[in-house]
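Appendix B. Raw example, untouched.
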Amino acid sequence: MAAEEPAEEPAEELAHAEVLELFQAALARLVQDPLLCDLPPQVTAEEIGSQVALEYGQAMTVRVCKADGETVPVVVVQNASVLELKKALRRHMQLRQARQGGVQHLSWKYIWRTYHLTFNGEKLADDRKKLREYGIRNRDEVSFIKKLRK
């Protein structure tokens, strides 16, 4: 006779909304940690990962000075390229707009056609070039400069 296998208990299924609620509650508890207390209440896993990488020296904060004078802190990995900085800036602005309920869509194609980023007067023209090749380090500031018409 074959030994009877114990009947498997059915896995408890949660609705997507319930899982999302549990995840948000766990994140809310997580951001009470002193390391993560600067993060917003509706934090994303990506933001937590960036903050932890920053704490362990695997990432750096680049302050991006917008044309209106506002400075935006953007976290990128230590060996990030100019393109990765642009993507991180875009993601940061999208999250901020979603949280503040401001303009829902920015044309980044227009922004990069109209402005370029500079560091110490040098244009960050090559998207593939690493930030450190331009001399950009943790807490350095890059600026948006309007392109001149040809």
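End of appendix B.
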